[in-house]
Design brief:
The chain is an alpha+beta fold and 948 residues long. It contains 33 helices and 29 strands. It has a nine-stranded mixed beta sheet with strand order 11-10-9-12-13-15-14-16-17, sandwiched between helices. The chain has a six-stranded mixed beta sheet with strand order 1-2-3-4-5-6, with helices on both faces. A four-stranded antiparallel beta sheet has the order 18-25-22-23. The longest helix has 32 residues. It is globular and about 110 Å long.
């Protein structure tokens, strides 16, 4: 069929839509060279009347449907095509959310895009325009390549642009002296007005008219905005002779507005041209909060967490359990419908299909979701969407079974929130309101009215953990608790929150949360107690991934004692306050939960408190061993600018003896931090007056002391800790036990606390390791080889936590728990096993590894060794010339170990294989054991030694 033949035939058509629609569609298929629905005899992928059921025999949800392409509805000429579109919206979910929703009255075809995260675009093709090859191609795409019609602009991009415009307006208003909270409230009202205008809740053009007249008379802008806000805040409000719907909700509780200047009004007019109906509430709050809260302005333009990450908790805690409930109810409905008419169906009204359906809807309407750190409402918005989607699904499926569907009633009141930041709390309400209205429109329902907004007093602005008098706060009873509580390392609590708050916090949660734990742990413990009190049924929270170990893991240990971790993602990328971080997502419920456990997207029979699964080994049982005690230490914490460049230190070293007859070499040491180990040495030294030297004694070392007076004392004077202020010339945590031990050795081992690769290096005894390193006070090659073997690396990776995506090493969790081969433990002097063949094999492999590594790091043709300016310190390794220096920059241990598993790194792999074989032989094991087998055997050794 040619376009001309098609147009001629259907221009003369006088039949009704019902009589002609299938023939019309088949002709379109012939015109486009596409198969017809009759080509699919099963109707599974392509069908007329998709959705008709054996229970009702009624017309389908769509006149034509093609999987992953479109749902198509016909209407009579000049009929209400918007009504047809609303019907498609109503059933889009059961139809698999096709990317295109198409309505036709034969005289025209209207294609609307329906991608979830893209703005909606509309393409209208009148019958006569099918002669145009471009219009015909557009229709062809609907059948064969819908992606060609995907809008280029995402809802996220639209929301980012809108947030940027309003961030600039907020900045201008604050610059004129308006209070930040007043500015935020005013901007939130304008945002909602633009949304209400675009979705048809305000009279058409009213907001644009207000901006136009305000631009002509900017001095009256406050008055005009107040008129609109006032009308929106009362029942029966009007602007001029135009009736304005009643919005209520608290957002328009008064008519207060701020004055605008002409550039501000132009900005608003520009913003008003955006498609506010398509704004994305899942990120709206986050982005607008950055512009409205002065404390977060630095985060403008930073990354944010997208909805797919949040869904990783919404799904197992809200959607999945309720869907299981609905499937059970639906099965009972089907069973009741299948009983014969003279059966016992519906006795006492308790088992009628309609009653079963209504009972499930009531369950959803009573369901409550609490986010006790709700921020600007991302979790609450998506929680509401999940409940409303389930309500809609149940209604559509019940209708397909022949029941009378009910109007959706799940609303914003089902969402409960606690948020201490007033900017975020109000934005959370706005996000939930907008999301609710968007959902109703996108599913073919009318928006709420009289009032449009219900008050959201369920989102409270207060501290979720402590009351004002320092007592444990209360959380409202809820079915599900979800959210992303604040992260703050235990060592930072006092600095950020203050001593008074921390004292109250530690007292309120004594014996429940260790004082060293991350702040997020208090939300986990609070949620656990809500489960225990039957004030919640299921919990899903985000935590820093350090919750898997150390003091923070204690809260997960407590959770495992009284609840079940049923879903977890142990190490995921996330965004907090605009910064990329690594997190753990943890969902847990009471012990009676029937949900199978899912870890990192894979089923497992059990999830342990370190967020590993029972498919592996429960390393949380491992305990520190006496054999390993007192060997590994965190390095020195200086607490100020005690570190100086090498040239400064050498100048002091070469000075004559001081007035006390002692040289500066006594208080100077080469200094290394984690980057010195994983990159190139920085040639940094440190001033160290020890842990007992008085200020008077220190003053005799005049050069170094003068530096500390200038660079350290002013900052230490501001420190909250009295001892740090009083002993300002000393390091804050000098680790005397570590220094005593390394000063007895010619060399010692060190590893970076946080690093991509678990690397060990040798350091000369005069070197002072920083707190970013862990020092192992052993000097034997055998011990070095064991620690650098695959066996210890596996143990350390699984026992430790991580910072972002870099594993963390600690003296207690990763070193003291590790079971060395029998007879080669760190409590034994190296001389006691020096003649043992297995020890010698490990030592030889370790020495060769270090020698070959050093040869790669410092090729003799690129470096020279230079004695230090005074005796007693290690030689310096310096580049021979600038060209050598440039080459050496890339010769780091990190870059070297990045080559493992590549052709360039085969030699290094071979050296490690030889070392692993020697260590395996020392254990009496095969070097070919799997990772889980190695860990299981190491755990068995750990527990056996701990029991002795």
């Amino acid at each position: 069929m040619t376009p001309a033949e098609f147009i001629a035939k259907w221009q003369s058509n006088t039949r009704t839509e019902h009589a002609a629609c299938q023939e019309h569609f088949i002709d379109i298929c012939h015109l486009l060279g596409e198969p017809t629905p009759n080509s699919d005899p099963t109707g599974e992928d392509y069908a007329f009347e998709k959705g008709a059921t054996k229970f009702t025999g009624a017309d389908g949800w769509a006149d034509v449907w093609r999987r992953n392409c479109f749902a198509w509805e016909y209407k009579k000429k000049r009929g209400d095509q918007d009504a047809a579109h609303r019907q498609l919206l109503l059933y889009a979910g059961p139809l698999g959310n096709p990317p295109l929703l198409i309505v036709s009255d034969i005289a025209r075809i209207v294609i609307r895009t329906n991608w979830t995260n893209a703005v909606t675009e509309t393409h209208e093709i009148p019958l006569a325009e099918l002669a145009n090859p471009l219009r015909l191609r557009l229709l062809k795409w609907a059948f064969s390549d819908p992606e060609q019609l995907r809008p280029a602009r995402s809802r996220q991009a639209l929301t980012e642009q809108a947030a940027a415009e309003f961030a600039e307006l907020a900045r201008r208003l604050r610059a004129r002296g308006h209070a930040p909270q007043a500015v935020a409230h005013f901007v939130n009202r304008l945002v909602f007005c633009m949304f209400a205008d675009d979705v048809g809740l305000l009279p058409a053009g009213l907001f644009d008219q207000m901006l136009a007249i305000a631009r002509r008379r900017p001095a009256r802008s406050t008055h005009y905005a107040s008129l609109l806000f006032g009308a929106m805040g009362q029942s029966g409000g009007e602007v001029g002779f135009v009736a304005v719907p009643w919005f209520n909700g608290g957002l328009f509780d008064d008519a207060t507005a701020l004055p605008l200047e002409v550039p501000d009004i132009d900005l608003l007019a520009r913003a008003a041209k955006l498609d506010w109906a398509e704004i994305d509430p899942s990120i709206l709050g986050t982005l607008f909060e950055r512009g409205l809260d002065p404390d977060k302005r630095s985060q403008l333009g930073a990354h944010y967490t997208d909805r797919t990450k949040i869904e990783m908790l919404i799904d197992p805690v809200i959607r999945r359990p309720l869907l299981v409930e609905w499937q059970a109810v639906k099965a009972r409905i089907e069973a009741a419908l299948a009983r014969p008419p003279n059966g016992r169906r519906g006795r006492n009204g308790g088992e009628t299909p309609q009653a079963l359906y209504h009972g499930f809807l009531e369950r959803l309407r009573r369901f409550r979701v609490l986010d006790p750190a709700c921020g600007s409402g991302n979790f609450l918005y998506l929680g509401l969407q999940a409940l409303k989607d389930l309500e809609h699904r149940a209604s559509v499926e019940a209708e397909a079974l022949g029941l009378q569907r009910e109007f959706p009633q799940v609303g914003p009141e089902t969402m409960l929130g606690i948020e201490i930041n007033p900017y975020a709390a109000e934005l959370a309400r706005v996000s939930v309101w907008i999301g609710h209205i968007q959902w109703t429109r996108r599913h073919g329902y009318a928006a709420p009215s009289d009032p449009v907004l219900q008050p959201l007093d369920t989102i409270e602005c207060r501290d979720a953990i402590l009351t004002k008098d320092g007592q444990v706060a209360e959380w409202p009873v809820a079915d599900a608790i979800v959210g992303n509580p604040p992260f703050l390392g235990g060592k930072l609590l006092r600095r950020i929150l203050g001593d008074d708050y921390c004292d109250a916090l530690f007292a309120a949660f004594a014996d429940r949360v260790p004082a060293e734990a991350d702040l997020v742990c208090y939300w986990f413990e609070f949620a656990r107690s809500q489960l225990a009190a039957d004030h919640a049924k299921d919990v899903g929270l985000v935590a820093t991934n350090s919750i898997r170990g150390g003091a923070s893991r204690e809260v997960l240990n407590r959770i495992r004692q009284s609840a079940v971790i049923h879903d977890a993602w142990s190490d995921e990328a996330w965004t907090v306050e605009g910064a990329a971080v690594r997190v753990s997502l943890v969902a847990f419920a009471g012990p009676g939960i029937a949900t199978p456990a899912v870890l990192n997207g894979h089923p497992t029979s059990e999830i342990f408190s370190n967020l590993t699964g029972s498919n592996g080994v429960d390393l949380t049982q491992a305990v520190p061993l006496a054999d390993n005690r007192g060997v590994a230490f965190m390095g020195d914490t200086k607490g100020g600018a005690f570190d100086v460049p090498g040239e400064v230190a050498r100048r002091w070293l070469e000075m004559p003896r001081n007035a006390n007859g002692r040289a500066n070499a006594e208080v100077l040491r080469p200094w290394v931090n984690g980057m010195d180990l994983t990159r190139r040495p920085s040639d940094t030294w440190i001033i160290d007056f020890g842990w007992s030297m008085s200020q008077e004694e220190a003053a005799y070392f005049s050069g170094p002391f003068a530096h500390v007076v200038a660079a350290v004392q002013p900052e230490r004077a501001k420190n909250n800790r009295e001892t740090y202020r009083r002993f300002w010339w000393r390091h804050v945590e000098p680790r005397p036990g570590l220094l005593w031990k390394i000063d007895q050795l010619e060399r010692f081992m060190a590893t970076a606390r946080v690093a991509k690769h678990r690397l060990f290096v040798w350091l000369p005894h005069r070197t002072l390791p920083d707190s970013a390193t862990i020092a192992i006070t052993r000097d034997d090659d055998t011990g070095f080889g064991i620690l650098h073997s695959r066996f210890h690396e596996l143990w350390a990776l699984r026992m430790g936590t991580s910072l972002e995506d870099r594993p963390r090493y600690t003296p207690t969790t990763t070193f003291e728990t590790f079971p060395f081969p029998a007879g080669l433990t760190p409590n034994l002097p190296a001389a006691s096993y020096a003649d043992a063949p297995r020890a010698q094999a490990i030592a030889a492999a370790a020495r060769e590894l270090v020698e070959r590594r050093d040869a790669w790091l410092n090729p003799p043709e690129l470096v020279e060794r230079v004695p230090e300016v005074v005796p007693g310190f290690p030689d310096r390794i310096i580049p021979r010339n600038p060209k050598a220096a440039a080459i050496l920059k890339a010769r780091t241990l990190t870059n070297l170990y990045n080559m493992r598993g590549t052709p360039e790194g085969v030699w290094l792999d071979n050296l490690h294989r030889a070392l692993d074989e020697a260590v395996a032989a020392a254990y009496g094991w095969s070097a070919a054991l799997s990772d889980d087998e190695v860990l299981a055997r190491l755990l068995e050794l750990n527990l056996a030694r701990a029991a002795v």
